[in-house]
Amino acid sequence: MEKKKKEKKPVNKMTKDMWITLLGYSATHWIADMCAGAVVMASLIYYGYGIWEVFILVVLYNFLSFGLQFMFGIMIDKFQVPREATVFSFLLIGAAYFVFDNPVLVVLLAGIGDSLYHVGAGSISLNLTPQKALPAGIFVAPGGIGLFSGIIIGKSSTIPLPFEWGSISLNFGPVTMAILLGLLVISIIFTIYREIPEINYKRVNTRPKIKYYDLIIALLLLSVSIRSLYGLTAGFEWKKGFWLPLALVTGIVTGKAVGGFLADKFGWTKVAVTSLIVAAPLLVFCQSTWYLAILGAMIFQMTMSVTLVAMSNIFEGRSSTAFGFVASTLIVGASPVYLGAEILKPILRSQTVMLVVVGISAISLYTGLRLLRNYFRKGLKINL
What we know:
Blueprint: H1 2-7, H2 16-46, H3 51-67, H4 69-79, H5 82-96, H6 103-126, H7 134-140, H8 142-154, E1 158-160, E2 167-169, H9 174-193, H10 213-233, H11 243-266, H12 268-285, H13 290-300, H14 304-314, H15 319-340, H16 345-348, H17 351-379
Helix pairs in contact: 2-5, 2-6, 2-7, 2-8, 2-9, 3-6, 3-15, 4-6, 4-15, 5-6, 5-9, 6-15, 7-11, 7-14, 8-11, 10-14, 10-15, 10-17, 11-12, 11-13, 12-13, 12-17, 14-15
């Protein structure tokens, strides 16, 4: 009898301990993406690769980092090892620093390591309060700023500071490498010793009784792939230097984090679909005005946490699979741009095409969430 009581323990309210775990994993998300991005960029630049070679290897890194997540997610759920996968991911990223003279191997180790990290740590974060979007938003948010800072470090750039403070010179040498490796070690220690939430794997082979199950998944993933496609094709001509790109990344990070909170408070469907509708004109008609474009990008990203948690609840007992499915769909959305390179961008940047594409994303997301309404109302405490 005591076992049953433990299984039914409420998990829909964030406690202080849960917040510590969530913020800790958010920080390690920053560290994982920063360390992976830094070693990949530094290795490619140091060995003098040309533009096309860099492009191919960066695309390979993205395919490994995102495209493998679905496969890794299935494996993690099958063997029930999210913590072990997270620790191993840090070891792989760290190993890339010891083969610095082989850029291809660096890309392979860092890309696979980053992929494992997301589905391992992502599963842990999703299960803190499985029916709330807030933890998903807080967890995924730092990834963008982590990758941005990793690229800056990897390029050995000089970062301008405001006013009379001058600049900071970052040289990717032994000291920088030691600091980054030290952060990975701290992340490993945190992951090993921090208690993780209970994950209900017992339903892993049970298909939930959801009407239009496959259609709902397809609709949600269509919305995700469109968001990815637009993210690569948006033509922000002002995105130069250091501060404006940083402002854009900060806006995207803020949107992901705030989106989960607003979705839980006002309703997933309302917030997610409204965010796409509001963001569309800002992104389509105000691209040349940096502050309006950043505002649009921030609002556009508010759907991320909703799609992640909706998928996690559809794939009951398989949160790593759900996380990986969503992440791998991002690379599917990006594929047309990667494969078509610069040829497709002028077409995709057409205002008419962009409005239609974002409109399709909003309709597919709205329809998918509406079809889930009855299931969520009956079985789950979700503010849909």
